[in-house]
Amino acid sequence: MFCVAPAELETKMNITKGGLVLFSANSNSSCMELSKKIAEDVNTTIMELLIMVYACKTSCAKSIIGVIPYFPYSKQCKMRKRGSIVSKLLASMMCKAGLTHLITMDLHQKEIQGFFNIPVDNLRASPFLLQYIQEEIPDYRNAVIVAKSPASAKRAQSFAERLRLGIAVIHGEAQDAESDLVDGRHSPPMVRSVAAIHPSLEIPMLIPKEKPPITVVGDVGGRIAIIVDDIIDDVDSFLAAAETLKERGAYKIFVMATHGLLSSDAPRLIEESAIDEVVVTNTVPHEIQKLQCPKIKTVDISMILSEAIRRIHNGESMSYLFRNIGLDD
Q1: pLDDT at position 328
Q2: Which contacts qualify for 147-153: CB closer than 8 Å, 24 or more apart?
Q3: Helices 126-136 and 153-163, interaxial angle, to 10°?
């Protein structure tokens, strides 16, 4: 995956042509930190990681620590209908290959840690993003933290409480938005039929959800709107949220997230949108996207990763890195 090597360890690291970083504290140590810069083909990178972990395991390594700031397939952590839970599969593969410890950052759902039977340190990028708000947004006291959907309200509430700011939540969907029935997710169409069961039985069908027209719960008029989330991949929902906030009177709009995947035409769409700035961390490399869109800014989080590696290697407590983090964070 991707990890920025700590500066104080660079002289002791052996960096191969393939991007694999092996760290050895001394000649007798068999502890290794594995990191791999994420490639265009994520599946190939995952397979390479598993092979490297297994190679270390068969070479009798004492401990094998994976540093994966962005855990791939983290959005696929719930079963939808009869689908597969890919995060669980990936966790099982890593544990089976021989991983003994995992360092990651801002998992899409904290419950993903339960998929592993090894220690998982889920670090937080929020202190770096909060520092950016305080230092780079001069009038941040006039800002309001926005959740673009009720699902991200907890994260927005955490930011708002730490910055002593108000909160707003966007709820509903645009009237012209395509429904599941229109875009083919239910193809062929669902038919109410009881022919497959006993004629005397009729299983009741669940009433489908119907979202109300898009509304903003909270006052954003004449204020700076800061939309917070964990992942920015497909930016359509962020663009729709920005347009709604502009209509409600917000005069400046920031988007902040930990993982900036920014796939497909995301840079172009951001550049043409009402969003003033997109702030992401360097858990995923996005240098090309930054060249395409000057609105994208990067916050460096290598410091906390290097400190986590140092503490694990020296057998020190990791609790310092999780101070002031509540159950809902």
Answers
A1: 67
A2: 147/227, 147/228, 148/227, 148/229, 148/237, 148/238, 148/241, 149/237, 152/228, 152/229, 152/230
A3: 50
Tell me the average pLDDT across 167-174.
85
Closest of 223, 269, 263, 268 to residue 246, by C-alpha: 223
Q: What is the pLDDT of residue 39?
A: 43
Please give the DSSP secondary-structure letter assigned to residue 108: S
Here the tokens at position 20 are: 């694999």
Number of H helices, E strands in the chain: 8, 13
| All structural domains of the chain | 20-123 (3.40.50.2020), 126-174+213-299 (3.40.50.2020)
Looking up tokens 């027209």, which residue turns up?
213
Beta strands in the chain (DSSP E): 13-15, 21-23, 31-34, 63-68, 101-105, 120-123, 143-147, 166-171, 215-217, 224-232, 252-260, 277-281, 296-299
Phi, psi of 10 (to 5 degrees): -60, -35
Quote the Cα angle for 248-251-252, to 5°: 115
Q: How far apart are CA 52 and CA 195, in angstroms?
A: 53
Alpha carbon of 93 to those of 54, 108, 117, 141: distances in Å?
A: 10, 19, 11, 46
Alpha-carbon torsion angle 221, 225, 228, 232, nearest 10: 110
In this predicted structure, the answer to whether residue 329 has a pLDDT above a threshold of 70 is no
Structure token pair of residue 208:
């489908």
